[in-house]
Design brief:
5 helices; two-stranded antiparallel sheet
Length: 239
């Protein structure tokens, strides 16, 4: 059954933001070693994005109260965070994009004559058309947002995830409307970029609640999951 309405953060996003108390991280094996990707104090953005999309697809409003660590809703959001990383290939993609030329650089050519396009080109030419097609078809698009430029795997967690649900086009300039877990249920969060010259360089402006620039974004493969039937605040931590 199709969802009953268009997605809007103020009605379909979580009423709370991506601020959590410290909790034990989950040791996750990746091609770059074991990372603690489940520490709530570092944020659960991907889990929140996937979870609100699960509730929206089910035609239900998400719970309004922030769950405590150990509750069924909290465990569901953490599980969806891990799902959003698509281990191990998803982590490898973030790492590759962290090491690509930035939006203001031309493509690099390696000694083996393999061309590695920059983040701007990959975002505008490969992923923006897929995001646009998904939104046009009525389905919000989960995005992996690359903010870091580093070969150190320890900063992988500084990248971000948002949900694109609408856009405006003025000439070659695109304003992409996104649900940002860091901003809470705000309808006024966006990423803006110019599609005119992706091979020469594309810069991204944004008002996402992060300290870093947006270097590029890609469409994340979302698979729906049944959200838990919980009622907050009666939900209590598991023993």
């Amino acid at each position: 059954m199709a969802p009953p309405r268009a997605f809007l953060p103020s009605s379909d996003g979580f009423a709370f933001d991506n601020t959590w108390p410290a909790a034990p991280g989950l040791p996750i094996r990746t091609p770059f070693g074991t990372l603690g990707l489940g520490n709530a104090a570092a944020g659960l953005c991907g889990g929140m994005v996937f979870a609100v999309l699960d509730w929206w697809r089910a035609g239900r409003a998400p719970p309004a109260s922030r769950p405590a660590p150990g509750t069924p809703l909290y465990r569901f959001i953490v599980r969806r965070l891990i799902d959003s990383w698509h281990l191990p290939a998803g982590v490898a993609r973030y790492y590759l994009w962290m090491n690509l030329a930035g939006p203001d650089y031309s493509p690099r050519v390696l000694r083996q004559r393999v061309t590695l396009r920059g983040l701007g080109w990959r975002t505008v030419e490969r992923h923006w058309p897929r995001v646009r097609a998904s939104i046009d078809a009525g389905s919000p698009a989960a995005l992996g947002v690359v903010t870091m430029a580093s070969a150190w795997p320890g900063v992988l967690g500084h990248n971000h995830q948002v949900l694109a649900y609408g856009y405006e086009v003025s000439g070659s300039v695109v304003t992409l409307h996104v649900y940002d877990p860091n901003s809470g249920p705000s309808d006024d969060v966006w990423i803006r970029f110019d599609t005119a010259t992706p091979s020469s360089g594309t810069r991204f402006e944004h008002n996402i609640a992060i300290r870093w620039p947006v270097r590029g974004f890609f469409l994340t493969a979302y698979s729906p999951a049944a959200p838990p039937s919980v009622t907050l605040p009666d939900d209590s931590p598991a023993a």
